[in-house]
Amino acid sequence: MNVLIVFAHPDPRSLNASLRAVAVEELEAQGHSVEVTDLYAMGWKAEVDRADFPALDPDARLKVATASGDAVAADTLTEDVKAEQEKLLRAEVLILQFPLWWFTMPAILKGWVDRVYAYGFAYGVGEHSDHRWGDRYGEGMLAGKRAMLIVTTGGWEQHYSPRGINGPIDDLLFPINHGILHYPGYDVLPPFVTYRVDRLDEAGFEQAAERLRERMRTLDSTPPIPFRRQNGGDYLIPSLELRPDLGAAGSSSFKLHLQREG
Amino acid sequence: MNVLIVFAHPDPRSLNASLRAVAVEELEAQGHSVEVTDLYAMGWKAEVDRADFPALDPDARLKVATASGDAVAADTLTEDVKAEQEKLLRAEVLILQFPLWWFTMPAILKGWVDRVYAYGFAYGVGEHSDHRWGDRYGEGMLAGKRAMLIVTTGGWEQHYSPRGINGPIDDLLFPINHGILHYPGYDVLPPFVTYRVDRLDEAGFEQAAERLRERMRTLDSTPPIPFRRQNGGDYLIPSLELRPDLGAAGSSSFKLHLQREG
Asked: The whole model's pTM is what?
């Protein structure tokens, strides 16, 4: 398979860089081909602004969705963005790797999403009708592919547990797993998370590395997070609220958007 | 009061810019003084990198928390970051205003958080002991101040409702309200959210503007979101899990971190 790793750490000698090397080595040992987008190394521009839409009339207002859709249609996106979109289309598996900063991804990676996820590419795709609300949440340009997160955090695992003060890690990552990865179609694998990385000794690193190798060996057999598909009949259209007979009554957690298992 | 608005939209003629003008006008009419950090207008640098730590040994690894803490202690943060920290210390109220892009803030604003929230300023503050885990989640350098979000989104309100497909808006914003604002001490007011902004006509805008004026008039009387305090006795230390007798048994939603009302 073709695997794309989008990597967001500023230090080439960081723990994240070491884990990335472990992942790449194991993937290549399994016969996969790996491409890496190293955002800091390439000087990725994080901000969406007018420079992203060179064909936009200088006097026109910058409406991002409109400008983005026009640029996709006319093939006038900037070269850096087009190159990333081509990588996404080539890759059967996408991995986003980053340290958790303030409970989400670093700005440079958010800027990769904001800029590469153009209208007509990652959103604004497909027909709207009585039984479809576009191709999204399980459908879209990237459907049929798999994606997963590799995340490090300085905090303790218990602080991210179901009753931990930071909130459960799966809920903190829901806006990314569901809103950024499942949205344009990916089947999303459970995240690989390493905690208390500032205190990791050599034995701890080797344990993390071995867990990561195992995840890289099982990329195509690991069951994805069972997010519901938007157009599969579970949601009312156009309100896109979960059907009243599905999910726990009275519940309003992100878990509503998981299919019942078993 | 002193109010700081940190604003993140690339177009000075955007709906967000119009709403900002409404907020500023109403705040000034109420006798408040308003400062604006317009991230795009000032060309804010979004990426945390070595340039943020000019005193860091060029041969040293960049460990962000360590470098950040050292720079705070030695007063060697860059001028742009120090200026923002001074604004935060001056302001009794902080407002973050942004369009919701991919279910969170735009990269440029995340980069303001990543860079301004230095170790020893917004985290890594206070004593750790048997009954305290640092000054955070309701305590810290910015305690006693209020904060709130002003957010616009193209999506429908129902899609962000308790059973809506995107997830409930309050849960999507929890990593920001709880993890970014409550963390260094703020009392966090409920967010001001405007939906379907791409379809907003003049009457719709005037309605939104009037709702916003009302929120600006009631900044100091609106009850904050009742997030629990970390060191108030509700959490076990050091696991920082909610005490077993608090919150709904078996629940693992973000709502566990709200005090029971009434």
From this structure: 0.97
Domain tally, chain B: 1
What is the phi-psi region of residue B75: left when phi exceeds 0, alpha when psi lies from -120 to 50, beta otherwise?
left
Is B204 in CB contact (< 8 Å) with chain A? no
Residue B113 lies inside a defined structural domain of this protein: yes
Per residue in B13-52, pLDDT tens?
999 999 999 999 999 999 999 999 999 999 999 999 999 9
Question: Cβ of A128 under 8 Å from any chain B Cβ?
Answer: no
Nearest CA in chain B to A111: B107
Determine whether A224 is exposed, middle or buried from the number of CB atoms within 10 Å of its CB (0-12, 13-18, 19+). middle
Parent domain of A93: 2-224
Chain A touched by B259 (CB under 8 Å): no
**DSSP category for residue A196:** -
Write the CATH number for A57: 3.40.50.360
Q: With beta carbons less than 8 A apart as the criterion, state whether B178 and B219 touch.
A: no
What does residue B144 show for φ and ψ, rounded to 5 degrees? 90, -5
Has residue B256 been placed in a domain?
A: no
Q: Is residue B251 part of a domain?
A: no
